[in-house]
Recover the amino acids of this structure.
């Protein structure tokens, strides 16, 4: 049998050439990936100067109409009623009403529409009306949990009342408050699981005033007046008009120039405190972030407002100065949208302005993100359009 002879020198050269080619391919692939990432970053951070409208839907000319994202669609409500739409302009169900001052609040699975100053309140889910409540006293404020448990503040003749209802209308908790004893209940919030309640009371004694943030637990109660007081905190000469549950055991309290985060799992305690040198103009939040608009009087040449965004643990994610006009501001995912009349400012969590300018239409009511790159639903007073932002103008 003939003996096979290998040319090891030639094989080594071939192997080295293959390894060199493989390294070159890997380097080129890495360069391409980095180049793509750089292009994507530039595109995601760059400002658009133009826009186009698509999919126009005409609506009634009514300044009273509002839209909110809900479940897998939208809730449209006004003093005349409420309607659920999976797509704009396509009603799944509607309920006709005659409210004077419609008051709306929602959780992930439930929404509440009440008549502020009156005695009517209705609980909804994505399938329609769940329960209608006739309240004993006029409605001041309400929140709803993910299980459909409702908290309400009511204004009586000589006292105020904080009540909690199950989604079937059963009264779970009934607490009376008076200016002389506890103070005036400014606002309240119910936990996502519907077992805990936070209330902000405001009281005045002579020349002094204070706000008391008080926490209640009614997870183990037997009767509506058997509510457990967990604890609370007092703040002198302060008003705290907004409370929000970050999760079932964390509450955020928003004051004029500070925000306090409390852990209320056992005995309530302050876990984080954010102080501002300027008074807070507006607060906006979504499921991941809390944002603040502050008057930038210290450095007005850098921008009219200071915009700051924090995560729900109180860690700062953004601080930037902005010149903008706004009556309302919201955050959708990592996009912040401010609106006033026909002007809007859209920016991302990095503080990059994606668009700023006037839109063609009859007064902007709201702007919501839509599917597609830099695509938004714009709700005007008399129409809804899908707007796509562009870097260049169509010829």
């Amino acid at each position: 049998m003939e003996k096979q002879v290998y040319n090891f020198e030639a094989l080594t050269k071939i192997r080295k050439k293959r390894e060199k080619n493989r390294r070159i391919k890997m380097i080129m692939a890495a360069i391409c990936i980095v180049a793509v990432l750089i292009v994507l970053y530039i595109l995601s951070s760059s400002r658009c100067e133009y826009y186009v409208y698509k999919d126009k839907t005409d609506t009634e000319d009514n300044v009273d109409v509002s839209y909110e994202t809900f479940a897998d669609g939208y809730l449209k409500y006004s003093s005349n009623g409420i309607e659920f739409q999976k797509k704009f302009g396509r009603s799944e169900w509607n309920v006709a009403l005659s409210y004077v001052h419609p008051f709306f609040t929602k959780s992930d699975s439930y929404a509440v529409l009440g008549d502020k100053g009156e005695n009517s309140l209705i609980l909804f889910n994505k399938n329609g009306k769940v329960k209608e409540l006739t309240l004993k006293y006029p409605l001041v404020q309400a929140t709803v949990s993910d299980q459909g448990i409702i908290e309400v503040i009511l204004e009586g003749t000589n006292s105020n009342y904080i009540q909690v209802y199950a989604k079937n209308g059963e009264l779970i908790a009934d607490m009376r408050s008076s200016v002389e004893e506890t103070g005036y209940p400014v606002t309240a919030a119910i936990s996502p699981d519907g077992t805990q309640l936070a209330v902000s009371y405001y009281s005045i004694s002579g020349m002094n005033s204070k706000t008391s943030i008080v926490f209640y637990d009614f997870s183990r109660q037997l009767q509506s007046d058997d509510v457990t007081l967990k604890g609370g905190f007092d703040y002198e000469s302060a008003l705290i008009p907004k409370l929000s549950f970050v999760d079932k055991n964390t509450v955020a309290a928003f004051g004029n120039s500070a925000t306090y985060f409390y852990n209320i799992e056992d005995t309530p305690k302050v876990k984080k405190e954010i102080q501002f040198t300027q008074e807070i103009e507006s607060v906006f939040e979504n499921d991941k972030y809390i944002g603040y608009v502050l008057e930038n009087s210290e450095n007005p040449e850098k921008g009219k407002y200071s915009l700051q965004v924090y995560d729900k643990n109180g860690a700062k994610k953004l601080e930037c100065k902005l010149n903008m006009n706004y009556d309302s501001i919201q955050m959708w995912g990592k996009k912040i949208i401010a609106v006033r009349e026909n002007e809007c400012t859209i920016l991302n969590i990095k503080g990059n302005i994606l668009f700023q300018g006037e839109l063609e239409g009859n007064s902007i009511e709201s702007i919501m993100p839509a599917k597609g790159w830099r695509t938004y639903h714009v709700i005007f007073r008399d129409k809804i359009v899908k707007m796509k932002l562009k870097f260049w103008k169509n010829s």
Remarks:
- The two ends are 79 Å apart (CA to CA).
- The CA atoms of residues 101 and 225 lie 30 Å apart.
- The mean pLDDT is 89.
